[in-house]
Amino acid sequence: MKPYYLLFVFSLLMLSCSTTTTKTEDNTLALEVQQYLDTYTNQYVKLYYDLSLAQWETNTHIVEGDTTNAYRTQVASEAFANFTGSKENIEKTRKYLEQKEKLTPIQVKQLETILYQAANNPQTVAEVVSKRIKAETQQTEKLFGFNYTLDGKPITPNGIDEILREEKNITKRLAAWQASKEVGKNLKAGLVDLRGLRNQTVQALGYKDYFTYQVSEYNMTVPEMMEMNKKLISDIWPLYRELHTYARYELANKYGIKEVPEMLPAHWLPNRWGQDWSAMIDVEGINLDEALAKKEAEWLVKQAERFYISLGFDSLPASFYEKSSLYPAPVEANYKKNNHASAWHMDLQQDVRSLMSVIPNADWYETTHHELGHVYYYMSYTNSEVPPLLRGGANRAFHEAVGSMMGLAAMQKPFLANLGLIEPNTKTDETKELLKEALNYIVFIPFSAGVMTEFEHDLYVNNLPPDQFNKRWWELSQKYQGMVPPAERGEEYTDAASKTHINDDAAQYYDYALSFALLFQLHDHVATTILKQNPKATNYYGNKEVGNFLKKILTPGASRNWRELLKESTGKELNAEAMLNYFQPLMPYLKEANKGRKYTLPEKI
Fold it and tell me: Where is the secretion signal located (predicted)?
């Protein structure tokens, strides 16, 4: 036998031993990591549920002067923070991620999630985290415990919204709008405090600021996120400019104002923040408010559930109806509740709930379909293939997109006819229908991608001085929305803080902007590829193929890369193409309507 042959055989044996040793080491590490993940998850879910229960009480049962719920929430928040941000968990996770090539992709994703969670609660700065938790609880109570009054009498946010949607008397509109902003006066100090505490918290784990931290969940940098939002605004701007010109002249005529202003006075618009103008348009033949007024509020929620069941989803668990807070607090109640609709995955398992104040009208009809979209997303990714740590949307915008898409689908004429809310042969002005939708979906983009996103960017990244909060808010409103306050608003006001998300869902409002582009991309695919219907006149109801398409998107939760999932589902990257195509027929109509009118927004932004 040749010597070099013996050397070759020896080398193979050594290589085989080395490979076997490496595989054994890898398997040992993967097993060790899995044991850690299982132990961490068990404690995480328990503490998450405790915190959810405390926050639920804080949001659904606000009693002036009663600090019980605030105390419980603070205790639960601190326990959750102490665990997720513990030095031991941070160090272990970092150590394991240094060898991530030896782990499974699903293990790596969970470890990255643990480290991301830790950055919001690092116990290396435990005192800061504790202060932030206390400040957040206090801010929530001030926001939702606020007593709105109009002409010296109590009024609910629903009542203010109704006036802004329907009232033609400009003096009464102004009073209602001003009443809606009073809450901001009491929130400025808390917002300044929270800004500092949120920044300090995430800086302990290397993030520049809280805005950067939130953006990182998309695996994007802040410049990338800001550029994506600016492109959305730029893409829809020509249409928005037409809508802005149209609204100025139409509303001036409606309110009997002879001199048309260059910018829209905020109290002229049918929404507290000017983010939705759709109430400007009544579509003849479709009066959903009138049709729904004959229904009980419960019917709206049950009907939304029936929609999802018709697509092949399961019924909601009985506990959903037993534990949710779905309707306004009784007038005689000695407590208040959060008036902003939301969906809750209380324990990352079977306890799903919604917080709403449903009354039988068109807005709440759409909202129930939207909020149940979140709930069915929760139910879909609560499965054995998705670990509790990854039970979230593919990204945060996916959650909103699914809810908004189902809200859009539920408002289309064939769908409404199917439910008997309009006659099947109802004739309507389709251009007006499209205009009404544009005054919702297109109008929202400059507010969400522009005003809200840039304000919070400036707040957290640029450390916007408190004596410039209101000034900056209205600068952005004028730039992106072409909207101005009825009169000078000094720094004694904090009008930005009247928006819920500025206080309790901070530095994430771009989620909603991206979700609108995403919803039209998904809706276009459903309409053209699955239903073979006009995207403007669809009826999803009862179509199991639509349900299967949705399940493929919902079921993986956050276990998949969001870009890959979107490309795989629709064949395209995230873009505004489908949204622009949907509303393109409006351009010639608006240009004709705006002939001879003065445009006051620039051609490009």
Answer: 1-22
SS3 state of residue 469: helix
Name the DSSP letter for residue 325.
B
Q: Residue 166 has which token pair?
A: 């329907």
Beta bridge partners of 352: 345
Q: DSSP 3-state assignment of 153? A: strand
Nearest to 219, CA basis, from 564, 555, 454: 564
Q: How many CA atoms lie within 13 A of 359 on its CB side?
A: 14
Alpha carbon dihedral 568, 509, 197, 185, in 10-degree steps, equals -170
Cα 216 to Cα 225: distance, rounded to the nearest angstrom: 9
CA distance 508 to 571: 26
Residue given tokens 């007006």 in the structure block? 432
CB-based contacts of 198, cutoff 8 Å, min separation 6 = 132, 210, 460, 506, 507
Closest CA to 137 of 217, 197, 184, 84: 197
Q: What is the dihedral of CA 314, 45, 113, 342, to 10 degrees?
A: 50
Q: How far apart are CA 292 and CA 301, in angstroms?
A: 12
Place of tokens 């990244």: 461
Rounded to whole angstroms, what are the CA distances from 363 to 357, 367, 438, 486?
11, 6, 16, 26
Q: Which amino acid is at 336?
A: K
What pLDDT shows up at residue 415?
Answer: 97
CA distance 539 to 108: 41
Residue 569 and residue 549 in contact, taking contact as beta carbons nearer than 8 Å: yes
Structure tokens at 337: 């509740």
Mean of pLDDT over the chain: 94
- 174-231 pLDDT, tens digit each: 999 999 999 999 999 999 999 999 999 999 999 999 999 999 999 999 999 999 999 9
Residues 256, 452 contacting (CB under 8 angstroms) = no
Element (H or E) spanning 286, and its range?
none
Helix (H) or strand (E) holding 194: helix 188-203
Q: Check if the beta carbon of residue 507 is closer than 8 Å to that of residue 460.
A: yes
Per-residue pLDDT of 534-546, as tens digits, reads 999 999 999 999 9
Higher pLDDT, 280 or 331: 280
**What's this model's pTM, rounded to 2 decimal places?**
0.88
394-405: average pLDDT = 96
> For residue 546, how many C-alpha atoms fall within 13 Å in the half-sphere facing its CB?
25
Q: Spell out the alpha helix ranges (H) of 204-312.
A: 210-215, 222-254, 288-292, 297-310
548 neighbors 421 (Cβ within 8 angstroms): no
Assess contact for 556 and 548: CB atoms under 8 A: no
Single-letter code of the amino acid located at 207? Y
The confidence band for 331, taking pLDDT boundaries of 50, 70 and 90, is confident
| DSSP string computed for 491-523 | TT--GGGGSHHHHHSTT-THHHHHHHHHHHHHH
